[in-house]
What we know:
It is a single chain. The protein contains five helices and two strands, in the order ααααββα. It has helices at residues 9-22, 28-40, 57-71, 76-80, 101-115, and strands at 82-85, 88-91. α1 packs across α2 and α2 (28-40) runs antiparallel to α3 (57-71). A hairpin with a 2-residue loop joins β1 (82-85) and β2 (88-91). 36% of the residues lie in helices and 5% in strands. The chain has a two-stranded antiparallel ribbon. The chain has 172 residues and is mainly alpha-helical.
Amino acid sequence: MSSAEPWTVGRLLKWTTDYLKEQGADSPRLDAEVLLAHALGCQRIELYTRFDEAPGDEARAAFRALVRRRAEGAPVAYLVGRREFYSLGFRVTPDVLIPRPETELLVVAAIDLARGEGRGARGEGREDKSDVRNPIPNPPPRAPPPGRGPGGAGPGGEPRPAGATEPGGGGG
């Protein structure tokens, strides 16, 4: 490609993909697409219908700045301010952790377990055949409500007045 050729969407994607690959990016093409779509203010899929379009100087400058920061190691989600997770878009800033794709597997497993569809939900392949509605085999005992229970209740279980002492404790 000669330098006289216009910087079309297709050319920007190709050059940026190669550049980010040289910089060691894990997913250079995806990164290039997300950053360019962000700079152009469009959806990623729209890039393919605009492949021969030459973005304006302002969009190219914004894209160049994003690519530079990505090459320095900034996560794409922080650069564009959002990340999709479990088919939902989330706003992302450097103040939050970026949802990882592997975490979606945990969400799916938790949903399956809650629905009783998880592996071993009916006890198959499990040593413990405890109630499937409670995945914790031996749940810890529940704490009594405030003012109830040992040392917290008066005779008959009624709440003890503030400052009251244990029966026979002398209070002082």
